[in-house]
Each structure stands twice: as C-alpha cells, then as structure tokens.
Amino acid sequence: MKQKFDIIKSTCIPIAIDNCNTDLIIPARYLTVTTRDPKFFGDAFMHDLRFDEQDQPIADFVMNHPDYCEAPRKGVHEIIVGGQNWGSGSSREHAAWAISGYGVRVVISSSFADIHRNNLLNCFVLPVVVSREFQQELFDSIAANPATEVEVNMAEQTVTNGQTGHSEKFEINGYKKHCLMNGFDDIDFLLDNKDKIEKYEAENSRIGR
Q: What is the average pLDDT across 166-180?
C-alpha cells in the first residue's frame, strides 16, 4: 500500500527467529494465486507458525499472544523486530506482500536478505538494519513491557527505543528514501519528473541534429 513515511511510532511484534526465510513468512502454496488482495496475503503471513493443521491458533507462537495478535488490524503494531538474516531463502515477492498486508510498515533486524529487502521497499515496508546489540535491546525491552514503543524517523534515519531512549542511525538508499517519504513507486517518480525528462529529451534531440 502506498503510504508516505515520516515518523512511525508504534508498539512492536517481536519475532525472534534467526534466518526466518520466505517460506516461513508465506508458505509456497500461496504463490499460485492471482489476487493481490492485501487481506489475503496478510492472513497468510507466518501462517504455518500461527496455525496448526486444523487451522487453529498455535497458542505459544508470539503472534497469537494476547499482547500481539490481531493488533495490526487496529493500526497498533506497525513494526516487527525480527531475528538475524530476515527474509532469507527464495526471492518470492509474496513475502513482502504478506508483511505489508498484515499491516506492518517497518521491519527491524540486524541483517536482511538483499532481494527480500528490496521487495519490502517496493511494497512500502521499510527494512531497518540495526546493530545486533541494539536488536537484542529491543527484544529485551519488548519482553519486559509489550507496550514499549519504538520510533522510526525517516528524515533523520533514526530508530529509537522508547523504553531506554537509546537510538541508532540506519542507512537507506537516497532514491528509495525520497520515494518512501513522498509515497512514490518507480512509476510515480517518473511521472513526478515528467517535465524534467521531456526538457532533457528536447534539449538532447536538438544537440544530436
């Protein structure tokens, strides 16, 4: 979903699974569908860890805990704090669709698989890389108090633990930062620069004559 990024302040879903691969994020059987319905993919997010073979919630999985379940539907938990190497495995973009469809706008980890990271950006989900020490601090703060809020400031490129007050800077490609802050996908960016493109083409066509 296209949404402008500025400051996102939210409680978090802690998914402390290292090497959480795209098959866990969305099982392969969901890849054959033709819909792009956000709810469909949101419901499929982490499905086989959330539900058993009878489609009943697995009580001890974090997303089914009363502090975390269904909150994104109410606009509460917009941030996931994930384990190391988030999004490894296949390049399926459906994994990013599932995260976005669930209502998540930011995923924080100490490392991301490169293709998945780019897929998240294309789905207007911000992947934030922090140090392993800060990642663990976030997990500890959330475990101590699930109401802990984390603030992600896109303009300043900072992520702040609301419980401790500690912050870290994160990196993001300048082009992607511009697009996210303006709610642009790649086509929107081109259209926004249409006049400049047409001017460049006109000037260079005269030079080539």
A: 96
Asked if 107 and 137 touch (Cβ cutoff 8 Å), the reply is no
Q: Which of 48-57, 149-158, 188-197 has the lowest mean pLDDT?
A: 188-197
The per-residue b/e assignment along 6-20, b for 16 or more CB within 10 angstroms, e otherwise, is: eebebbbbbbbbeeb
Q: Are 43 and 94 in contact (CB under 8 A)?
A: no
* Tens digits of residue pLDDT in 118-163: 999 999 999 999 999 999 999 999 999 999 999 999 999 999 999 9
pLDDT at site 3: 85
CA distances (Å), 173 to each of 1, 52, 117, 170, in order?
A: 20, 40, 12, 10
Mean per-residue pLDDT of the chain: 91
> Which single residue is written with the structure tokens 């269904």?
70
Residue-level pLDDT at 73? 46
What the block records as the tokens of 21 is 């691969």
Helical residues (DSSP H) of the chain, grouped into ranges = 22-25, 38-44, 47-50, 94-101, 114-122, 132-144, 174-182, 186-192, 194-207
* C-alpha distance from residue 5 to each of 59, 117, 124, 126, 181 (Å): 34, 17, 9, 9, 5
| Closest alpha carbon to 112 in 162, 26, 152, 171 | 171
What is the C-alpha separation between 88 and 22, in angstroms, rounded? 6
Strands 149-153 and 158-161, sheet pairing: antiparallel
